[in-house]
Specification:
It comes from Rhodovulum imhoffii. It is built from 15 helices and two strands. By secondary structure, it is mainly alpha-helical. The chain has one domain (7-366). The protein has a two-stranded antiparallel ribbon with strand order 1-2. The chain is globular and about 65 Å long.
Amino acid sequence: MTHIAAFRNAAPFWISLGMVPLALLGALAGGWTVVLLPVYGWVSVTLLDGVLGRNTANPDPDTPEEDLFWYRVVTMIWFPIQFLTIFGMIWWVGRAPHLGTLETIVLFFGVGVISGTVGLVYAHELLHQRNRLERWLGDLLLASVLYSHFRTEHLLVHHPHVGTPRDAVTARYNEGFHRFFWRVLREGPRSAWRAERLMLARRGLPVWHRSNPFWRYGALQLGALALALALGGPVGLMLFLWQALVAIWQLELTNYVEHYGLTRRYLGEGKYEPVRPHHSWNADHKASNWLLINLQRHSDHHYKPARRFPLLQTYSEEEAPQLPLGYPAMTSLAMIPPLWRRRMNPRVRAWRRRHYPDIEDWAPYKAAEFPWPAGS
């Protein structure tokens, strides 16, 4: 076990802040500097993974919350940083004649890298917490990319039903990312609405009751759209929508990688086995886990969803399937389905042999043909 309370141990998880000066440099200088953000987020972190290797040490999961102060701070200050970056950029572009159309498009692709690679990962951490402040910060981050329903879908559907046909973001074996992406965009909001409707019905309340969080989701997203329009006019609104699309694309790339081809055993009568570490792909690459605040220790996150990111554990190959590279490299590979299948399908088949040697017919699992979990 490792002791983690000191700031020097939390400091590597602050490398996300390095994106902000790169965004400012791109906005001020233009030209080739606008590509620095994507390079920082994907290429440099992947290279650092190769240099620094893996971190297989596990912190004490019983570390008290007061010892996690410096880890929590970076996630809690991120919304104002991201807010100022997105809307400051929208305001600036209308007053920056040195930025051409292509430069502006690439610059806001980089802003989407900030709001997707960092903002949505931090939102994910915040929405899992129990206190209202952190959950509100998570809601604000989601609204800044027009993906507020993710909170409902993630907490009420993905976590309880991962690895089953009910969960849209469990990528199916042989399903390419591009098909997966459009399927999730279509099914996700509808699935989240169904989950909230059923929860309200169990309380005897109508779907339009004020406690339905979709009212909050809509208000926050409309506020973000109105602010973008006020600051930048129609161009500002289009740039806001562009960065939001880039952020959502990155989130769903990550979702695709996290559970590709992994399923839970169907027990009959609408029941599935409990979630275990081997139902998520695990990666303990050091640098990419710094940037993504240990999201790649995803096996433990699903096994213990309430565990804060600095306390997440990693697992051996025998306990959980391992990705060959960190998320930045694996999500890039996922964009080329033939290469992805060549790299990952043998790993899925090895996972099946290891954990489910008795299952001979995988066709119903691959086609998501089993019934939805009871009551979902």
